[in-house]
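Milestone M4 deliverable, item 7.
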Amino acid sequence: MSVAFRRESDDEHMEPKFELPLPTGPNWVTARGLRLTREKVQALESVDSGAMEEEAGKKHKRVLRYWRTRLATAELQAAPDGDAVAFGTRVRYRLNGQDKTVAIVGDDEADPHEGRISFSSPLARAMLEAEVGEKVDFAGKAEAVEIVAITVIGED
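Output delivered:
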């Protein structure tokens, strides 16, 4: 029989497991984001992965590698002055006649349901460097977003 038709083992034909993808660009973090990343690494390191099933243990180690990398590459950003929209600010803005508020934070800290968006998101990029009262283009519409208020976020 030809070697081409012989199967050595089932493992040869399994889907490869890849590392968790890292967001592109710098790993900017707020003080809160740095604290949460440290806590995540500590929590993952405290788990005994040796007692897990093989696949669960591999998955746990992949997640731990991701968070260790994120901690090692974290760049704590200085608090902004609050005069303009910047990383580390909370922005109240008006879009389509509705007022909304978001905090501009790092990729791993972002949670849109809690009002935290990544500095690399389209909305944050559109608003960066704008000042109160200024209107900025967004989603292909001229002056779609009006900046209503800017405050510096704390450790919340």
